[in-house]
Structures are given as structure tokens and as C-alpha cells.
Amino acid sequence: MNEAVFSQIAMMVLLTGLIGWMGFIVWDLAKKSQAGKFGTIALFTVLGAGVFGFIVKTVLVEVIQI
Is the dihedral angle over the CA atoms 53, 55, 23, 42 positive or is it negative? Predict the structure, then answer.
């Protein structure tokens, strides 16, 4: 395994962990601030939009390179 393959695998694993950790932080924030159902949905919608944008960007870059 060369450095480029290791970097790509490590980035995917660590980014997945980071996204999961951010989800936990938002859930904990909503719980501690008593945001209610609507507030919790709003928080996760905004976070989900950012994650969705990152995934779309990654897919588009891969498609363009092919």
C-alpha cells in the first residue's frame, strides 16, 4: 500500500468519524437546549445539507476525472 492509497482510505474513515461526531454534538446540543422536535429537525437539516453538499462535491469530482 502506497502513501496515496493510505491517505485516501484514512481521509474517508476519519471524515466519516468526524461527521458522526458532529451529529452527536448537534443531538447533544438540541437535547441540552431543549430545542424540541422542530428545533432538533432544523439543526439536523442544516447539518445534513452541509454533509450532502460535501458528498455531492466528492462524487462530482470523481465523475469529472473519469
Answer: positive
